[in-house]
Structure formats: C-alpha cells, structure tokens
Specification:
Endonuclease Iii, domain 2; mainly alpha; 3 domains; two-stranded antiparallel sheet; Arc Repressor Mutant, subunit A; 16 helices; 3-stranded antiparallel beta sheet; Endonuclease III, domain 1; about 300 residues; about 55% helix; globular; binds iron/sulfur cluster
Length: about 300
C-alpha cells in the first residue's frame, strides 16, 4: 500500500467535515466528554446497531449514571439492564472495569492508552476512542466504518479484506488531522454508517466520487467484495448460534419468578425452546456450564440462578 498524497488527504478531511456539518447524527453520547459515558456507548455499539443502542444506553445511564453506581451494582442488576443487547460479556466487562477504576484509580479514569488497555474489556480501539472522545487527544481510531471508508477511498474496495490491521492503522494515522480530530473521527464513523455503507453504498449522494478509488466499479461489485469483516464460523445449534441460547437463558433467569426460585434444567429448556426434549439435556448443560464458567449463572443443587 503506497502512502497517501497530502493533497488527497487535505481534500478528504475538508469534504468530510463539510458533509458532517449538515449530516451529523444526533447521538446522546456525543453531548458529553465523560470517559465513563464514552466507554458505555462504545461497548454497547460493538456488535449492536445504533438504533437499538440508543434506548438501552439511556436506560443504562439512568440506572448507572457513573462508574461508582455501576461498581456497586450486583451482577444480576447489570445483566438485567443489558438485556436485549446480546453478547452479555460486554456487560460483565463494564462491571469489572467499573470495579477496577473505583478500586485502583479512585473512580477517575486514567488518561493513557496503556492504562486504559489494562482495564477489563478495553482493547486498542476503545482505548483510543476514550482518548479521543473524552480526553480530546488526536488519536486516530480504527473500527468497522473507518476501515471501510478509508480502504474504499484510498485503496480499493477489492482490497478491503486483504489489508492488515497495521495497514488500517497507517491509513487512519495519515488521514486523521491534528486539529478537529474529534469531529473528524465522529464524521468518518457517521459517513460509513450512513453513506458508504457495507452492502449498498450510496455513491450517488457521495461527495468523494471524484477522489474515491472504488467508484464507480463498486456499484456493480459482487457482495463478497463488499464485506469488511471476515465471516465467522459460528457453530449453529437448533437454528441459532450458542450466544443466542445463552442470551435466552439469561433472559429467562432474570424474570421475577426465576430470580426468586431459580430454575431446573428442564424448566430452562422448555422456556427457551418450544420443542425442547430430554435428548437436548446434555447440550443445554454444556451451554449452562459456559455461563457458569463466565460467572453469569450459578448452580445450587439442581437449580440455576443469576448470581446476586
Ligand atoms: S463513492 Fe461510494 S464507495 Fe466511494 S466513498 Fe463514496 S459511497 Fe463510498
């Protein structure tokens, strides 16, 4: 991958910020620079669409408005509030992170990438997002939308899947300005979410047509070339991946009656599958064991509960 021309980068930044000035999405987490808020929104947005995140984010912030309230909540409350977002490990990470920040940093988030990355659930992207969105440093960020937009414009949509992480970071470094980086990073994520979308990019409404290395070929491209993330080989059980069954189990155990009494294996099976049968008991036990190993469920005798 050759380096980007300064002229092209300058043109790109300016056109992107102009587009953003009139098209920015109104997202509640953009109204603050609080690192806790940034982390909550970033973890919710991993794997979940913005429209689904907004109401959950508002409810979460009402229940756990700061790192201290989250740190002192029970696992049951945290998992309950996360319901509907899926990938429950993210809730666990947030909970552990809140405890760690409260215990080690007195409730004040550290402002260095290394210290942030030492917290549970914080990877290179989230650490840089916090540095950029909360502490307003000029960190570049690389997430799905950024990968897609930069590779399509400056390389080619055909190579999106073959770029290495290092190459994506090099692109982001070259493209991110030293000034107005907050708006630039928000803008590029919005642009990827609204215009340069994965499946059917809206090239006809795009201000980058005359500098985009993918236009116009992308309009007749095959779907396999438009994907940005590589397909995962998630195993399917009775029509759904295991994480969906895990989510259904947690949802059932969170209902008031089950919170009080817990549930047996068969009760759980019948609650999550209309056609549950004894032949599936061993499979269900194996799923429950993954939840027990992740400390999301506890077993007392023959009954399963959410931890307090
Ligand atoms: S022209 Fe199409 S592919 Fe290129 S940046 Fe615009 S929307 Fe994306």
């Amino acid at each position: 991958m050759s380096s980007l021309s300064p002229h092209a980068v300058k043109k790109f930044r300016s056109a992107l910020l102009t587009w953003y000035a009139s098209a920015a999405r109104d997202l509640p987490w953009r109204k603050t620079r609080d690192p806790y808020t940034v982390i909550v929104s970033e973890l919710m947005l991993q794997q979940t669409q913005v429209d689904r995140v907004i109401p959950k984010y508002r409810a979460w912030m009402k229940k756990f408005p700061n790192v201290q309230t989250l740190a002192s909540a029970s696992t049951r409350e945290v998992l309950g509030e996360w319901q509907g977002l899926g990938y429950n490990r993210r809730a666990q990470f947030l909970h552990r992170m809140a405890k760690e920040v409260t215990k080690t940093y007195g409730g004040i988030f550290p402002n260095s990438i290394d210290a942030l990355m030492s917290l549970p659930g914080i990877g290179p992207y989230t650490a840089r997002a916090v540095m950029n969105f909360a502490f307003e440093t000029s960190e570049p960020i690389v997430e799905t939308n950024v990968r897609r937009v930069l590779s399509r414009i400056f390389v080619s949509f055909k190579h999106t899947l073959s770029l290495t992480e290092k190459e994506y970071w090099a692109l982001a470094h070259a493209a991110t300005p030293k000034k107005d980086h907050y708006n630039f990073n928000q803008a590029i994520m919005d642009f990827g979410a609204v215009v340069c979308v994965a499946k059917k990019p809206k090239c006809e409404a795009c201000p980058f047509q005359n500098m985009c290395n993918s236009y116009p070929e992308i309009l007749s491209a095959q779907p396999k070339h438009l994907r940005v993330t590589k397909k995962t080989n998630e195993k399917i059980y009775f029509g759904e991946p295991r994480r969906i069954w895990r989510g259904k189990i947690l949802k059932f155990l969170h209902t008031p009656r089950q919170q009080k009494n817990g549930a047996s294996l068969v009760e759980i099976g019948n609650a999550i599958q209309n056609d549950f049968s004894v032949e599936r008991k061993e499979w269900l036990k194996s799923v429950l064991h993954t939840l027990i190993a992740d400390k999301m469920v506890e077993q007392k005798g023959k009954r399963y509960h959410l931890p307090l």
